[in-house]
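Workshop exercise sheet. Pairs work together: one partner reads the sequence aloud, the other fills in the structure field after running the prediction. Swap roles for the next sheet.
Pair: D.N. / O.F.
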Amino acid sequence: MSTPRDVAVLVGSLRKESFNRKLALALAQLAPPELKLEIVEIGQLSLYNQDDDDNPPAPWTAFRDRIRRADAVLFVTPEYNRSVPAPLKNAIDVGSRPYGQSAWDRKPGAVISASPGAIGGFGANHHLRQSLVFLNVPVLQMPEAYIGGVDKLFDEQGNIGNESTRAFLGKFLTTFAAWVERNAAS
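Structure field:
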């Protein structure tokens, strides 16, 4: 078997007991052998300010370098006010600058949104996709992944207790692995 593709996973919620972080950790366990999922932390990134482009803070540089090293990106996010959480939008902005030097350029990507509500973060999922189009991230279109009722998804050990959801996410990850292979820079 060849080396698995390095997937940078960005979790939109900073909350310690975040359902989306639990989901990202579960996804890493479900991933096919072709993918190695690793959460890339975003909470340490100060707010993007173009005035800092010439002398960027060390966390910005480390973040940009990590995204550049990744073969692909996976966003796992809740929905805040029908959009993406501010820390995730900030991470996207930090990674996209300075203009013309975006770390996101041509990274195959995918989006999973999850919330306790029935529509599973639909608004955040689609709002995030708008930014990714501009950033030239080829985003997996199907299957779409909106995980509703995420607050009831995990057992005591953090495993996904619902077999149909686990099967769906397995299919999603297998499809994403093929997407990454088709779109990854050689």
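Discussion prompt: The beta strands are 5-11, 35-39, 72-77, 109-115, 145-148. What would you look at next?
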